[in-house]
Amino acid sequence: MEEPSSRKKKPYNQLLRYAGLAFQMMAAIGIALWGGYMLDQWVGMRFPLFMIIFSLLALALLLWQIVKDTSKHDR
Predict the structure, then answer these.
(1) Measured between alpha carbons, how far is residue 29 from residues 4, 6, 41, 65, 75 in Å?
(2) Residue 2 DSSP one-character state
(3) CA dist., res. 17 & res. 12, Å (int)
(4) Which of 32, 44, 46, 68 has the greatest CB tally within 10 Å of its CB?
(5) Residue 44 gets which letter from DSSP?
(6) Exposed/middle/buried for 54, CB within 10 Å: 0-12, 13-18, 19+?
(7) For the segment 44-69, what is each residue's pLDDT rounded down to a tens digit?
(8) pTM for this predicted structure
(9) How many angstroms from the chain centroid is the CA of residue 4?
């Protein structure tokens, strides 16, 4: 007996979802780094304080989103 088509596509859907999350992480961290760099330049700071703060904030928010998404889909 053949499996339903939804079961065959499920691993590929999860793979695409997690690949999308990876690209979303890269884009968000890149935008946070760029925004922090521009703010550091505008304020005239030599130490990249805003770049560090924005990138760590983006990383924390993205990790929270990934944990929330993966725990919801594992059930």
Answers:
(1) 39, 34, 18, 14, 29
(2) P
(3) 8
(4) 32
(5) T
(6) buried
(7) 989 999 999 999 999 999 999 888 87
(8) 0.70
(9) 32
